[in-house]
Input
Amino acid sequence: MSRARTARRIAAGAAYGGGGLGLVGAAAVGLVLAEVQFAKRTVGTGLGDPPRADGLYGSEFGGPEQSPGPLRLGMLGDSTAAGLGVRRARQTPAALLASGLAAVAERPVELRNVAASGAMSDDLDRQVGLLLDGDRPAPDVCVIMIGANDVTRRMPPTQSVRLLTAAVRRLRLAGSEVVVGTCPDLGTIEPVYQPLRWLARRVSRQLAAAQTIGVVALGARTVSMGDLLGPEFAANPREMFGPDSYHPSAEGYATAAMAVLPTLCAALGLWPESDRLDVSRNEDMLPVAKAASAAAGLAGTEVTAARGPWVLLKHRRRRRVQAEDVTSPADPGPAPGTPTAGVSGPA
Output
């Protein structure tokens, strides 16, 4: 059975009930997850809480009192969304995205990050409630990064997708655009060895594809995390890993933010390429299951709804996000004349 058919079955199970483990049997999955948990214990633990990055970014473009006011960005998900492993707020992916969005929009961005380390998809309902609670308006756009803990803690994929789609539906009904960073490739975790590495990759990519099928139907966009950090981690482990040798470093988070930023901007109509297909970049219009499967295998790929069951498979040009150039509300301001956008032209 192809990955596309498996993902479609998981997504259907999430919508209508039922489901199962898909291609990989329960015994094999159990062995993979045991290896992943061993890897976590082996590479290190003991990180403190991630730094708080909430606040206003891009204040050089105007204050919150000026019309039309700041864009509102919400960040939800697990430790990757929270920025576990870095020491400064400006190094978290949420801060990088807020600063990058402000630079592209030339408008301030108000960030609220409600992501929690260790979160699974069953925590998304609580996180959405925090963003939508009270009298403040809903975020203009939200980024969700979730899925790895669902796999390692054996949440059924149909339940995982059902919980994610419920959260996306609430945000969409509140008027927010939504971008989902899908489940990362757990086959990149050390020391998970073959053939378990292959199985871990297969399980996580199945979930990523099913997540895409579920949320694109609601008008959200997805960006494949896949093995985005795998090649860079293998080549430069000291630069790309954080102090626990498991979570990304500041450079690792900047790499992930660079992949998400174009889609985040496109969701708000700010990206110059819009949603036109670029055949020179192997972009295409495909049935959703086929596109979801292709995206799961190629990190940084965007999937967004088009017409009916057809979706766009996009490989947007990335903009570089430099962690050291971002100024957050928790950090001292830059010297006069120093740029704070943290974004350069297309790479």
Summary: The radius of gyration is 19 Å. The longest strand covers residues 71-77. Residues 19-24, 330-347 have pLDDT under 50 and may be disordered.
